[in-house]
Amino acid sequence: MSIITIYNTFHATECRLNVDWSRADGEGLMPLTHFQYLRCRRILCGSHDCDCGGPLKDRGVQEVEIYQTQNSRTGEYGASVQRRLRTID
Ligand SMILES: [Zn+2]
User: Fold this and answer.
1) What's the pLDDT tens digit per position in 30-45?
2) Could you tell me the distance, in angstroms and rounded to a whole number, from the CA of residue 53 to the centre of ligand 1?
Protein backbone atom coordinates (compact mmCIF):
# COMPACT_ATOMS: atom_id res chain seq x y z
CA MET A 1 0.00 0.00 0.00
CA SER A 2 1.08 3.51 -0.60
CA ILE A 3 -0.52 6.87 -0.02
CA ILE A 4 -1.20 9.32 -2.78
CA THR A 5 -2.47 12.85 -2.32
CA ILE A 6 -4.98 14.44 -4.67
CA TYR A 7 -4.99 18.24 -4.72
CA ASN A 8 -7.53 20.90 -5.51
CA THR A 9 -5.72 24.21 -5.83
CA PHE A 10 -8.97 26.12 -6.30
CA HIS A 11 -10.34 25.29 -2.83
CA ALA A 12 -6.88 24.65 -1.32
CA THR A 13 -7.96 21.17 -0.25
CA GLU A 14 -6.28 17.79 -0.46
CA CYS A 15 -7.32 14.19 -0.04
CA ARG A 16 -5.08 11.26 0.79
CA LEU A 17 -5.90 7.87 -0.66
CA ASN A 18 -4.51 4.49 0.22
CA VAL A 19 -3.61 2.81 -3.02
CA ASP A 20 -2.67 -0.80 -3.53
CA TRP A 21 -0.56 -0.64 -6.69
CA SER A 22 -0.41 -4.43 -6.85
CA ARG A 23 -4.02 -4.25 -8.08
CA ALA A 24 -3.04 -2.04 -11.02
CA ASP A 25 -2.99 -3.39 -14.53
CA GLY A 26 0.10 -3.69 -16.72
CA GLU A 27 0.01 -0.02 -17.57
CA GLY A 28 -0.24 1.03 -13.94
CA LEU A 29 -3.90 1.96 -14.20
CA MET A 30 -5.82 1.28 -11.03
CA PRO A 31 -9.53 1.76 -10.36
CA LEU A 32 -10.48 3.49 -7.12
CA THR A 33 -13.27 2.01 -5.07
CA HIS A 34 -16.56 3.85 -5.31
CA PHE A 35 -16.14 4.84 -1.67
CA GLN A 36 -12.75 6.40 -2.41
CA TYR A 37 -14.20 8.21 -5.41
CA LEU A 38 -17.06 9.74 -3.44
CA ARG A 39 -14.91 10.54 -0.42
CA CYS A 40 -12.31 12.34 -2.51
CA ARG A 41 -14.92 14.45 -4.29
CA ARG A 42 -16.57 15.36 -1.00
CA ILE A 43 -13.29 16.37 0.66
CA LEU A 44 -11.90 18.32 -2.28
CA CYS A 45 -15.09 20.19 -3.10
CA GLY A 46 -18.25 19.97 -1.07
CA SER A 47 -20.44 21.75 -3.59
CA HIS A 48 -22.40 19.72 -6.14
CA ASP A 49 -22.87 22.56 -8.60
CA CYS A 50 -19.23 23.69 -8.52
CA ASP A 51 -17.29 23.14 -11.73
CA CYS A 52 -13.85 23.48 -10.19
CA GLY A 53 -12.05 20.32 -11.19
CA GLY A 54 -11.66 16.92 -12.77
CA PRO A 55 -13.18 13.51 -12.03
CA LEU A 56 -12.06 13.60 -8.40
CA LYS A 57 -12.62 17.37 -8.14
CA ASP A 58 -8.90 17.51 -8.63
CA ARG A 59 -7.27 20.67 -9.82
CA GLY A 60 -3.65 21.60 -10.34
CA VAL A 61 -0.59 19.41 -10.74
CA GLN A 62 -1.18 15.89 -9.41
CA GLU A 63 1.06 13.01 -8.35
CA VAL A 64 -0.95 10.66 -10.56
CA GLU A 65 -2.93 10.78 -13.78
CA ILE A 66 -6.67 10.70 -13.08
CA TYR A 67 -9.23 9.22 -15.45
CA GLN A 68 -13.00 9.28 -15.27
CA THR A 69 -14.62 5.87 -15.60
CA GLN A 70 -18.20 4.74 -15.91
CA ASN A 71 -19.56 1.35 -14.99
CA SER A 72 -21.15 -0.03 -18.14
CA ARG A 73 -23.67 -2.03 -16.13
CA THR A 74 -24.80 0.48 -13.51
CA GLY A 75 -23.87 3.73 -15.25
CA GLU A 76 -22.15 4.83 -12.04
CA TYR A 77 -19.22 7.19 -12.42
CA GLY A 78 -15.88 6.46 -10.88
CA ALA A 79 -12.20 7.09 -11.44
CA SER A 80 -8.93 5.32 -12.05
CA VAL A 81 -5.51 6.60 -11.22
CA GLN A 82 -2.25 5.87 -12.99
CA ARG A 83 1.29 6.24 -11.84
CA ARG A 84 3.21 8.83 -13.75
CA LEU A 85 6.07 7.30 -15.64
CA ARG A 86 9.38 8.39 -14.24
CA THR A 87 11.47 10.46 -16.54
CA ILE A 88 14.95 9.24 -17.24
CA ASP A 89 17.57 11.76 -16.27
ZN1 LIG B 1 -15.34 23.20 -6.19
Assistant:
1) 999 999 999 999 999 9
2) 7
